[in-house]
Amino acid sequence: MEATIRVLTIITSVLGTGLTLWSIYYFITGLMSLKKTEDYPQVPASTRFAVLIAARNEQQVIGSLVESLREQAYPKELYDIWVIPNQCSDDTAAVARAAGAKVLECTVPVKSKGDVMEFAYEKLSVLGYDAYCVFDADNVAEEHFLMEMNNAYQSGVRVAQGYRDSKNPYDTGMSGSYSIYYWMMNRFHNQGKAAMGLSAMLNGTGFMVASSVFEQLGGWHTKTISEDLELSALCTLAGEKIYWVPKAITYDEQPLTYEVSVKQRKRWTSGTLQVVEHYLGQLFGRGDGASLDLIATMLIPTYQVLAVVNLFLSVLLCGMVIGGRFAVLVGVGVLLCNLTFTLFLSLCSGIGVLLLEKKWNRNLWKGLVMYGLFLLSWIPITIDCHIKKTTVWEEIRHTCTMTTKKRTIAVRY
Predict the structure, then answer these.
(1) Which CATH superfamily is domain 1-413 in?
(2) Mean pLDDT in each 10-residue stretch from start to end of the chain (413 residues)?
(3) Spans of all domains in the chain
(4) What whole-number distance in Å separates Cα of residue 413 and Cα of residue 396?
(5) What are phi and psi of 339, to 5 degrees?
(6) Residue 299 backbone phi and psi in degrees, to 5
(7) How is residue 34 annotated by DSSP?
(8) What pLDDT was estimated at residue 410?
(9) Pick from 298, 262, 293, 260: which is nearest to 279 by CA?
(10) What pLDDT is attached to residue 413?
(11) 192: closest CA among 138, 119, 244, 240?
(12) For residues 115 and 123, is the Cβ–Cβ distance under 8 A?
């Protein structure tokens, strides 16, 4: 028994130390997000953009996105909107054309969004665009998005992530929790990393990559279902910093139900694990600050699993040390205290980001109350993905329309 206790003590001490150091790093990142980043100088529009939108059965929402892009405060001759329908059984292509987009039908087998983007880049790279902006079909773009990316590009930025806002934060508790999660990513991750001089993270939509970067990478070649994180890894390995452009705002539709949320988060987590398998060794090999910072992000699923393992080992250790009939009671008490602290911390961080981002609204109460449970529900999803990864990019239907004329924009000027 004593030997077992010693072994468990060593294991929990090592795990606890590692988890604590990881948490301290992200706490510092969060604190640094309070530092205001410098705006990019306002310069005349001159960057020629290709706007890429992969779309699968998105006829209900694609028109709103194309409309918002056509209404950009940016010269029409300097950008083209390309919708790339793939595996569609509806009228996505026709609706996109009617809204004013150019349509490039995807004619290759598609297992991931990256396959669609690779196909589009190969077809369009001969047209001489300076940079590519990527959106999801359910998005709506704030009217200054392209101008802000132009300002960044003309300042020397070659890879950039914009601000990911929410179309439907008040619909359900789940959509509210997602909205809070993305506001947290914007503020505590991307804003914090930018303040520290580190890279932001490409976050699936609302980002820009220069043609010169794709030329350096040999094209768009991603092989996982998490093309955004993989592209972040490829840029880091190529020595390209990912800049944060918070005034380039995109509105994104959030899942309304737990079932859809699980499907989406399984894809994200499985994709992250795929990226770890392919790029962890290369990033460790570089050993620079940018690579180690990205590794910390890539290991979030591993952190979640190790945190659960450490918690249960700690509960077991307490029970063994105390012994007797109170062992189970103490173990349950330790478990409940940890869960209560986690929920409380989640609530406080949620309130904090709503205040910092000026998103406070009483209609968000469902999302705020659910937020801690939303984060905790990621644990079984992560454990399941470690056992059996999702390898196919599954369709998620979008239905929330939002026109530029109806939305209220909080522009940060």
Answers:
(1) Spore Coat Polysaccharide Biosynthesis Protein SpsA; Chain A (3.90.550.10)
(2) 85 91 91 88 97 94 96 97 93 95 93 92 96 96 97 97 96 95 95 94 95 96 93 96 96 93 92 94 92 94 90 82 70 81 91 94 93 93 88 66 47 30
(3) 1-413
(4) 34
(5) -65, -40
(6) -90, 10
(7) T
(8) 38
(9) 298
(10) 25
(11) 244
(12) no
pLDDT value, residue 284 = 92
Termini Cα distance of the chain: 64
Is-contact 393 53, C-beta < 8 A?
no
Checking phi first, is residue 206 left (phi over 0); if not, alpha (psi -120 to 50) or beta? left
Which residue type sits at 288?
D
Tell me the HSE value of 198 on the side-chain side, using a 13 A CA sphere.
Answer: 26
Return d(Cα 307, Cα 166) in angstroms, integer: 30
CB-based contact 392:111 (threshold 8 Å): yes
C-alpha to C-alpha distances, 144 to 71, 75, 220, 231, nearest whole angstrom? 9, 11, 26, 25
Q: Residue 363: CA atoms inside 13 Å, Cβ hemisphere, count? A: 8
Coil, strand or helix: which one is 118?
A: helix
Amino acid symbol at 333: G
* Angle 89-94-99 from CA coordinates, rounded to 5°: 135
Task: State how far the Cα of 374 lies from the Cα of 376, in Å rounded to an integer.
Answer: 6
Instruction: Tell me if 212 sits within 8 A of 167, measured CB to CB.
Output: no
Q: Is 140 helix (H, G, I), strand (E, B) or coil?
A: strand
Question: Beta partners for 162?
Answer: 245
pTM over 0.85: yes
